[in-house]
Specification:
The chain is mainly alpha-helical. The protein is built from eight helices and no strands. The chain has two domains: 99 residues, no CATH class; 63 residues, no CATH class. Helix 2 packs antiparallel against helix 5. The longest helix has 31 residues.
């Protein structure tokens, strides 16, 4: 699998505690969805981009990390542009793109284990009430953060293999091998989890 998504550095985001970063990300998401004013959303998008690049990621690597999600954001914005208005389409794009860039900046400056530890601590009160199992939730979040980029990388590898063999690259023809390989990886991870007794108690 790929190495961790976090990178070493000494930026402001690197120095902030995990809980504060998550709280700021949550607050930013609320503020971004409270307005459709481009006079606020455009500077917010610019600031998010500056924060992401300040983590030490180069422009190419930063784009590689967010390109798939940004493509999805572009489709959503285009739908709003066509069916609602141009202003709403622009607002949706700026709002969601800024949130994606901010989340990528937090991910780049925070290790997965730190995410999992913080989520476990935050959910402990709910575990005492019998509502959740904090360790299971944090493990699920950690696996999603870790596994989604691997799926995207695997998709690229399958597409490259198709091109090398002169086969047409179509999403539907790539989907079946991608699902098979993903299920294999998921099965391997599940066996590793069971072998280490993460859920034994």
């Amino acid at each position: 699998m790929l190495n961790g998504l976090d990178i070493e550095g000494d930026s402001l985001l690197h120095r902030l505690p995990v809980r504060l970063k998550l709280a700021l990300l949550f607050a930013a998401a609320i503020l971004l969805f409270l307005t459709s004013d481009l006079r606020f959303l455009l500077p917010a998008l610019s600031l998010a981009l500056v924060l992401l690049l300040s983590t030490g990621l180069g422009p190419r690597e930063a784009f590689r990390r967010v390109r798939f999600v940004l493509f999805t954001v572009l489709l959503v914005a285009l739908a709003n542009f066509l069916f609602v208005s141009a202003a709403e389409g622009a607002a949706v794009f700026c709002r969601l793109a800024a949130l994606v860039l901010l989340a990528a900046a937090v991910t780049a400056t925070t290790g997965i284990s730190a995410f999992m530890d913080e989520i476990t601590r935050l959910l402990l009160p709910f575990e005492r009430l019998g509502l959740v199992r904090a360790a299971d939730v944090s493990l699920a979040v950690g696996l999603v953060i870790r596994f989604v980029p691997e799926i995207l990388a695997r998709y690229g590898e399958i597409a490259a293999a198709h091109k090398a063999r002169g086969l047409p690259v179509r999403p539907l023809t790539l989907l079946i091998p991608l699902i098979i390989l993903t299920l294999k990886d998921a099965d391997t991870i599940a066996m590793a989890i069971d072998a280490r007794g993460f859920r034994r108690h």
